[in-house]
């Protein structure tokens, strides 16, 4: 199979290629992992490969079928998509339409392909309706589902599909590791703030330079830690760890609130693509400013 510019794991390419090339593509597949766009691109590319009219490596991307699929005008390809982050945005009526259409014979291809992107946006009802089709799929219908994770779909659906993972587990593990690194940086910065050591604060921000994702993860960790510290200020029996306990002693509630506001602003600015270097500077100077008042009697 020709994957063009799509950067996907070797395992995904190998297993999908072997299914498509050997004409062994099962009646229902689920693509997981990757980004919303990568999942969509992989699903469209697969439909192209299944319908490509050229001999040789498929999809050729040049024949009429390939072009029609790409343009979204192939009569035998139906694409529906949920809105990422909006549960139940794939309505049951949409799935019912697919079911009705699936029993009609294809127009020009040997079968019809139904692509359901962001399939996790199907509520209970929609998933049940889809399950009924997958249990007794018409001979002339193939289904490609795409979802962030297999955990987003019900087990009954999973048992009816072949799962293809877009990027290998190590890619996801790497992302997880990055997050942990950023969270650790966030905690270090708070420790430096607790010591009222401006120089250490600046040093602590170094791992977040030129890395917007890490900056956001660190800001999130800091805000959460401060929130716990604030709670432990008021509730003696609150669940705390060593750091939140230390922070609640080191900062006044007023200081914690100021820092929380600062982090909230910086997080939303980071989301809006504010200049990364400025964000770092604003974090270190902002924290120092929050601490200008002397801790009362401590
Ligand atoms: Zn083609």
Question: How would you explain this protein's 3D organization?
Answer:
The protein has 298 residues and is of the alpha/beta class. It folds into two domains: 158 residues, Rossmann fold, CATH 3.40.50.300; 119 residues, Up-down Bundle (Zinc Finger, Delta Prime, domain 3), CATH 1.20.272. The protein contains twelve helices and five strands. Strands 2-3-4-1-5 form a five-stranded parallel beta sheet, with helices on both faces. Helix 5 links the parallel strand 3 and strand 4. The radius of gyration is 26 Å and the shape is elongated. The mean pLDDT is 88. Bound molecules: zinc ion. The site of zinc ion (ZN) has 8 residues, from helix 3.
What's the CATH first level of the largest domain? Alpha Beta
| Class per helix and strand makeup | alpha/beta
Based on CA atoms alone, the radius of gyration comes out at 26 Å
Instruction: Name the strands of the widest sheet in spatial order.
Output: 2-3-4-1-5
DSSP summary, beta strand count: 5
CATH architecture of the largest domain: 3-Layer(aba) Sandwich
CATH topology of the largest domain, which one? Rossmann fold
Sum up the overall morphology in one term: elongated
Beta strand %: 5-15%
Strand-helix topology:
Layout: H1 10-21, E1 28-32, H2 36-51, H3 64-71, E2 77-81, H4 92-102, E3 112-117, H5 124-135, E4 141-147, H6 155-158, E5 162-165, H7 169-194, H8 198-205, H9 212-234, H10 242-250, H11 253-271, H12 276-290
Helix pairs in contact: 2-3, 4-5, 7-8, 7-9, 7-10, 8-12, 9-10, 9-11, 11-12
Bound molecules: zinc ion (ZN).
Residues 52-54, 59-60, 63, 65-66 line the site of zinc ion.
């Amino acid at each position: 199979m020709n994957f063009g510019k799509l950067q996907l794991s070797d395992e995904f390419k190998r297993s999908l290629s072997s299914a498509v090339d050997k004409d062994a593509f099962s009646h229902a597949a689920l693509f997981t992992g990757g980004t919303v766009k990568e999942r969509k691109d992989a699903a469209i590319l697969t439909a192209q490969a299944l319908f490509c009219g050229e001999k040789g490596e498929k999809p050729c991307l040049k024949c009429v079928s390939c072009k029609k699929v790409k343009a979204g005008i192939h009569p035998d390809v139906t694409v529906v998509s949920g809105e990422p982050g909006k549960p139940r945005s794939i309505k049951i009526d949409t799935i019912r339409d697919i079911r009705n259409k699936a029993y009609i014979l294809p127009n020009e291809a040997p079968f019809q392909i139904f692509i359901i992107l962001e399939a996790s946006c199907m509520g209970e009802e929609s998933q049940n309706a889809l399950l009924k089709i997958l249990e007794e799929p018409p001979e002339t219908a193939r289904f490609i589902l795409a979802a962030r994770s297999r955990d987003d779909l019900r087990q009954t659906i999973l048992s009816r599909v072949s799962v293809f993972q877009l990027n290998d587990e190590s890619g996801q593990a790497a992302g997880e590791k990055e997050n942990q690194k950023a969270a650790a940086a966030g905690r270090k910065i708070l420790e430096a703030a607790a010591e009222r050591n401006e120089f250490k604060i600046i040093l602590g921000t170094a791992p977040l330079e030129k890395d917007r994702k890490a900056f956001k993860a660190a800001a999130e960790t800091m805000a959460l830690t401060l929130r716990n510290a604030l709670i432990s200020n008021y509730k003696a029996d609150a669940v705390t760890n060593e750091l939140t306990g230390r922070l609640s002693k080191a900062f006044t509630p007023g200081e914690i609130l100021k820092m929380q506001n600062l982090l909230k602003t910086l997080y939303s600015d980071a989301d809006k693509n504010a200049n990364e270097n400025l964000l770092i500077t604003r974090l270190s100077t902002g924290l120092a400013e929050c601490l200008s008042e002397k801790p009362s009697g401590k």
